[in-house]
């Protein structure tokens, strides 16, 4: 019965963790460029029970599991739908890749959230003030600018002349699912993701840049609700297992000769 209690508790903990992940996915269903997360489970080591004796079956020492545990949280990198905004500063990545942005203390981060703005210095920045890595600034007097699918930026001056001013590069990783989440839709590289590799958009399997579009979250609300119901049912069954074991234990303690 103690084993049953332990197994039930481990199952409840695992399903509660799964519910937390599902809740975070649902909360970010409208977050630009968000990638849903998924919990991966594994069975805790199985143990043989029963004493060695005259075998009454082919397996006289049956194995019993010791519960379940969460072994990892996997980030699903499927492409989200592209939403047309017709806003020049909205950029999305159609395919593989990340924008590199730089904080005020020169720390490097990566994101797929392309809802940019222009600050007072003419730099393209995120809503949080992180500067997009570029080799140009958009000076005053520019009538408009454009970004082609290859990331080439062109501006139209006040006199109507067009000029190419720079390029926006994208970055890829050997294991992008292992990027470290830093909050605010930002990620940083680590030993598991590998080092960032800069590439021109549209080259060597890297995605294209779409101006005037934003990438929606890849969270499927219907799928998340189904997963939530499954987790709730599993949690309830594990709780019932604990309740049954507790009742059996109580009856065994109250036995009278």
TrEMBL record:
The gene coding this protein: flgG
Q: Which InterPro entries match?
A: Flag_bb_rod_N, Flagellar_FlgE/F/G, Flg_bb/hook_C_dom, FlgE/F/G-like, FlgG_G_neg, LlgE_F_G-like_D1
Domain Flagellar hook protein FlgE/F/G-like D1, residue spans: 93-155
Q: Which domain of life is it from?
A: Bacteria
Record domain Flagellar basal-body/hook protein C-terminal: where: 210-255
Q: Would the keyword Ligase turn up in this protein's UniProt record?
A: no
GO cellular component terms given for this protein: bacterial-type flagellum basal body, distal rod
Record keywords, A-Z:
Bacterial flagellum, Cell projection, Cilium, Flagellum
Q: Tell me the compartments it is located in.
A: Bacterial flagellum basal body
Per the database record, which ranges form the Flagellar basal body rod protein N-terminal domain?
A: 6-35
Q: Name one GO biological process term.
A: bacterial-type flagellum-dependent swarming motility
**Similarity remark:** Belongs to the flagella basal body rod proteins family.
Q: Name one Pfam family in it.
A: Flg_bb_rod
State the species of origin: Desulforamulus aquiferis
Q: What is this protein called?
A: Flagellar basal-body rod protein FlgG
